[in-house]
Amino acid sequence: MSSPDTDLRDTQTQHTDYIVSSQEIEEPKIVYGKLTSIKMYLPSIVLDKPEFILGRDKGCDVVITKNNFARSVDVISKNHFRIHCDPNDNTVVFITDLSKNGTFVNSVPIGKNKTVVLKHKDLISIGTSESKVYVFNKINLPEYAYLPVQLKDKYEFIDVLGNGACGEVLLVRDLFSQEQYALKKINKGKSCHKDNLNNPSRIKNEIKILESVSHPCIVSSREIIETDEAVYIILEYMAGGELTDLVMSSPTPLPESVAKLLFYQIVLGLRYLHLRNIIHRDLKPSNILLQSKDLITLVKIADFGLSKIMESSSGLDTCCGTPCYIAPEVIDPRCGSYTMQVDVWSLGVILFYMLSKELPFQAESNNPNDIIRHIVFGTYRMSSSAWNSVSGSAKDLISRMLKKNPEERYSVHEVADHPWLSRDLGMQEQVKVIVNKYNEAKKVSKEFGAQPPTKKLKVD
Fold first, then answer.
1. Please, are residues 404 and 328 in contact by the beta-carbon 8 Å criterion?
2. What is the pTM of this model?
3. CA–CA dist 143, 134 (Å, integer)
4. Choosing from 174, 282, 303, 343, which is the catalytic residue?
5. Which fold would CATH assign to domain 33-138?
6. Strand order of the sheet with strand 81-86?
7. Is residue 282 among the annotated active site residues?
8. What's the rounded Cα separation, in Å, for the pair 64 and 200?
9. Domain 242-432 carries which CATH code?
10. Spelled out in words, what is the top-level CATH class assigned to the domain 149-238+449-458?
């Protein structure tokens, strides 16, 4: 006869086995997003299965009826749109338009049977662009709790654009106008040494320059907020990325006509700065931003972290900049102080790079001092096959910008007047059209929905 304890133990074991064998074990669901409803009677949806379909058909995951949709349901298809994630990467979420009357993301039509990637905080409309139904929210995005409440109340986080030693740049959207901006956070350094990139005086200088400039070929600031720990600068967002990306993504060097149109805009921006005694000191392709990924687009000079307002004609002596683009007089102690001509040298390197996909001053070995030596002596060659299709006029302009002696080097005004640029009236007209289109878009933005920003605000 078994003991009571043994009987109880056997009974429990048998009962447990029965439960396990009689129930289907479900794999845990992976949540990759959420559709937050904008309509009062339309349910919000947690995206936890491979696809979701919205439409009038009763088999849809979200069924549109006259009870939950304020507008006529006649504009809604039986299967209107489908949301699904990449099977190999559930952080990538797509939306496909299945409808006749259209599905819109941020008021832009997707196109029937076409698919686009959904980004965090995208607005989805159905039937018409005004008929907004859902906001898409990605899961597990950083909350950026450190942002001041003044920013959280005005902007919503979309993505991280970049990180650096002094801070980071975020892509944000204005909650009122729905326009996108780049939010640059600069951490305040404790050291006031002049070589410290985020020392308070250098940050203050960058703010002063940003607030004093206004030109179509220079990135503008919309709002500046300062706390005890950091400075937050809201900048216009340049969706085309850096000039570096455009050059590197092209299988061949940029066509000379394209390089000229882009370069001319850089010259216009730099000429504006020099007329106001502002020296950039770090001109390079990664600090040249493009409005779109098209070859014919608006170009803007960015990043004034190393810039300086020259308050006298005595020159500067701080060694700063990026090695491949730095002028000889900045790194050669025998030259003493330097002037705005260092920016023109950088212009020469940029144009050389655009036309050949090569840098004029490169190390012949693993020794970085090779670059410094070539720069100090001003030695470079146009020997690759890329130069065979480049005009003599373009080569002449480069040679005049890359003069070792800054007194013999062209000024930015002489660069603008060089025949390669000044005689191409068709190119100049193209630039005018691009700039006018940009100015008109800004004007319309101000008239329709954009709140006037607070230019600078001190947060205690």
1. yes
2. 0.68
3. 20
4. 282
5. Tumour Suppressor Smad4 (2.60.200)
6. 62-63, 51-55, 81-86, 89-97, 115-118
7. yes
8. 56
9. 1.10.510.10
10. alpha beta
